[in-house]
Design goal:
heterodimer; A: 176 residues; mainly alpha; three-stranded mixed β-sheet; 4 helices; 3 strands; B: 370 residues; 0% strand; elongated
Chain lengths: 176, 370
């Protein structure tokens, strides 16, 4: 046991001397205090290691760090994945809206379903405002007989635009 | 009456037997010669032991005078260390002041480090010497006790206190081994490690591991104190019970013998009494000489350690006004550690003297019942 203690003591001595040298060599600036902080963390780790070894001899600090690293990188990967997926969806929707606006159709609401793995849009639902200068946004519904109905010609145009530019099948596009 | 007599005979024959060495006084005095030095020069003489037995204790003359003389001599020989350290500290502070007038802060740090390294080299070599001295002393004392304890125990058996021996012997021998091992192989290295950590925590101003060093020192002190308390407690508890039993057993045996055996009973009883008395006197004398031997073996190291402690604290006090505070902290930390070493050594001496005195006293109480 006393050999353990003396080996941790020599590790501590080596760590302190190393950190002192690094501190000395650093030019003064913003990084200095962060380096000091991390040096202190390393020292604390060195002091804690034998205590943990005393109580639980199968805990290995390095293994703990590795496992946590794997978990953190997994979480990162998942987050990045969903983040990419979401931002792709958003950007695609904005693009569709802009393109339809250029052609004179204002979109009120857009719902899109994208395949998670191939990132291809499969279903699209559009709510178009009929652009003839009316102030009120008109909701096109089957049961209404307003004259601001979207003609099927308009719908064909929209569908063609979207099909040509985004590769969505015309059958999967619903326009209201 | 007859039944009681038979029972007593059976008891005497089935009692646990302790070993009995052949007590040869010249062997003992030869061994003691190893421990005689300037404090107790007459330790190895057989005549001294016999005179102690007669109650004529003429232990070393002018003991106090000798102690003071040696104290001053050691102090003078170690004063050179103080002078070196003070010189280096003055140099360091001069260098620092010159550097600050030039402006660069990095070079003054390096000047400080050089002086610090010099001081640390001086301190650590001296400290290592002190620790080696302590370790050697503890092993010396342990050897002395291994010699004394069987001797005194066999004498105690000869005076008839078998129960005391049966209870005392395992406790004593295991305690001696445990204490010397614990103190020499655990407390001393822990103190050394604490000193080293104290030294490195003063290298840089921002990195501080002082509390770790303080914790280790407290740990070492606690362990010494706890061993002291446990040892004395166990001894006194175990001893008091058994000595009473022994006294009453002996008295009963004497009464039975003197009244049961028809003609020579009384004479027999009284003869045994005087023989036991004589053996008790021998045992006490040998125990007393043993205590003197312990003192002789440890007085010198105790004085040396005490002087080292004084020297470290003195130099730290001397350089405090002028030197960098890190050097001062380092030195006072080392002085603290030497104080702990002194405490450990004093504990060991104290413990063993108490052990021997206890053994003697316990076997003497049995005589009280006569």
């Amino acid at each position: 046991m006393i050999n353990d203690l003396s080996s941790t003591a020599s590790t501590l001595v080596a760590a302190v001397i190393l950190i002192t040298i690094i501190e000395m060599l650093l030019p003064s600036g913003n990084m200095k205090k962060y380096v000091k902080f991390f040096g202190g963390l390393i020292l604390m780790l060195v002091i804690i290691t034998p205590i943990i070894n005393l109580f639980n001899s199968d805990i290995d600090i390095e293994k703990l760090i590795e496992e946590n690293q794997i978990e953190v990188s997994n979480i990162e990967y998942e987050f990045n994945e969903s983040h990419i997926y979401n931002s792709y969806n958003e950007n695609l929707k904005l693009d569709i809206i802009k393109r339809l606006e250029e052609n004179g159709y204002k979109v009120i609401d857009i719902k899109m379903v994208t395949d998670k793995n191939t990132y291809e849009p499969t279903d699209l639902e559009l709510l178009i405002e009929h652009d003839d200068g009316d102030i009120q946004p008109v909701v096109i519904d089957v049961f209404k007989n307003a004259s601001t109905e979207l003609t099927s010609y308009d719908k064909e145009i929209i569908k063609t635009i979207i099909n040509l530019n985004y590769g969505i099948k015309k059958a999967n596009i619903k326009i209201n | 009456m007859k039944k009681l007599f038979i029972i007593l005979i059976i008891m005497i024959f089935t009692m646990p037997t302790a070993f009995c060495t052949n007590i040869n006084l010249s062997d003992f005095s030869n061994e003691m010669k190893n421990y005689s030095n300037e404090f107790f020069p007459e330790l190895g003489d057989e005549s001294f032991i016999t005179s102690v037995m007669c109650g004529d204790v003429n232990a070393s003359e002018n003991l106090f005078q000798k102690i003071t003389d040696i104290f001053l001599n050691e102090f003078k020989s170690n004063i050179s260390l103080v002078i070196k350290i003070v010189g280096i500290a003055i140099l360091c502070s001069v260098l620092k002041n010159i550097q600050s007038s030039f402006g660069e802060s990095g070079t003054s740090e390096i000047a400080f480090y050089v002086c610090y390294i010099l001081v640390v080299i001086l301190i650590v070599t001296t400290f290592a010497n002190v620790i080696d001295l302590c370790r050697d002393t503890i092993s010396n004392i342990s050897n002395l006790m291994k010699l004394l304890v069987p001797l005194i125990i066999s004498l105690i058996v000869a005076t008839g206190n078998v129960t005391t021996v049966a209870m005392l012997q395992p406790v004593l021998i295991s305690m001696i081994a445990l204490i010397t091992n614990l103190l020499s192989n655990f407390v001393l290295p822990v103190t050394f490690i604490s000193t080293i950590i104290n030294v490195i925590s003063n290298i840089s101003e921002h990195i501080n591991v002082e509390k770790l060093s303080a914790m280790l020192k407290k740990c070492a002190l606690w362990i010494t104190e706890i061993t002291l308390i446990v040892f004395v407690g166990v001894l006194s508890l175990e001893g008091t019970l058994s000595s009473t039993v022994d006294g009453i057993t002996a008295k009963t045996a004497k009464v039975v013998v003197s009244s049961a055996v028809p003609v020579v009973g009384k004479i027999l009883g009284d003869t045994v009494d005087s023989v036991i008395g004589g053996v008790t006197i021998t045992k006490n004398a040998i125990g007393f000489v043993g205590i003197l031997a312990i003192l002789a073996a440890t007085l010198m190291p105790l004085i040396k350690t005490l002087i080292m402690m004084i020297i470290f604290n003195l130099s730290s006090a001397l350089i405090e006004p002028i030197a960098d505070k890190r050097i001062v902290k380092c030195m006072s930390g080392v002085g603290d550690s030497v104080k702990i070493l002194f405490a450990v050594l004093a504990t060991v001496v104290f413990l063993f003297i108490i052990a021997i005195t206890f053994m003697l006293k316990l076997s003497n109480t049995a005589l009280m019942y006569k």
